[in-house]
Amino acid sequence: MATLSDVAVRAGVSLATASRVLNGSAHRVVGPELRERVAAAATELGYVPNKAAQAMARGRTDVVSLVVGSIADPYFSSIVAGVSRETQSHDLRVTISESDGSEKSTLAVIANASSQQARALIFAGGAITSTPAVTRAISDFTTHTGSPVLAIGATNLPPEIKGIGVDDRAAAEDLAGMMVQFGYHDVSVIATSPIVLASQLRTEGFTEAIRKAGGTVREIVETPLSRQGGIDAMNHILASPTRPQLVFATADVMAVGALAAVRTAGVKIPGDIALCGFDDIPTLADIVPGLTTVHIDLEELGRWTTRLLVSPEEPIQRIMPTSIMIRESTPNLSAMRG
To answer: What pLDDT score was predicted for residue 319?
Structure first.
């Protein structure tokens, strides 16, 4: 098997020059004539570059560090699929870390990506905690590695962070407006901790739209972003002497748990209470009754964001379109009365 030294001898250049051409360099650029000679020699000898050497020369690897809230959540697993498929087509590899969105957890994943000399650091689900310590860590990461930080599903990002966002507030407002048209004016909300920005924006958009329409928001129940969290929150809501007309879960994974709690309690959806969610995760294809939700093409969201890394001509930040999916869990009460 040909070595880098063999290529250097065949091309008549130094070993350092051959390395800069074939492994890349973070600091030195080789002229076009020498580059052609080295490339031709490598082709003639059948030389295969060493990836570790390339990473050392460039100051970064071919690893993309992807940060998710939970790999078990279909929301994140769909995004992972999109990122993975796009990176594979560009000969990049993905490592996955979980973060609860706290400052401590966020700093840990940034430090890990920096130690890996990651080609990029991508946060999925808008899980970037805006604290001075995190801002400094992100700046240190980009300076140390020369690699970008990207965000999936986040909006209002600082200019140094590229991303594909979802207008969570506007989409939740649209969903609430549709529910008001359907005759729902008495609602409760299942949300996660305000540290999860997407959930906070969805909660604000939905509740403000309900109140502006003259409706009532009974309560906002905070719970972990999980199926069990949805079960616990819905059990709390059902324990009240009277039930709201509608429950909005800011993520479908919690809505699925809420639906399970309703069934266990012997309450009917639809009929006794209505339910809607957000994300349109793939799991919903097997849920009965069908869940009204806001559709996001999650896999495409992952692919679009990864293209910001590999395609410099892509816009720095874009907004992913959403659409409301009306299903059996929210019957049109106004039409039924009319």
So the answer is: 85
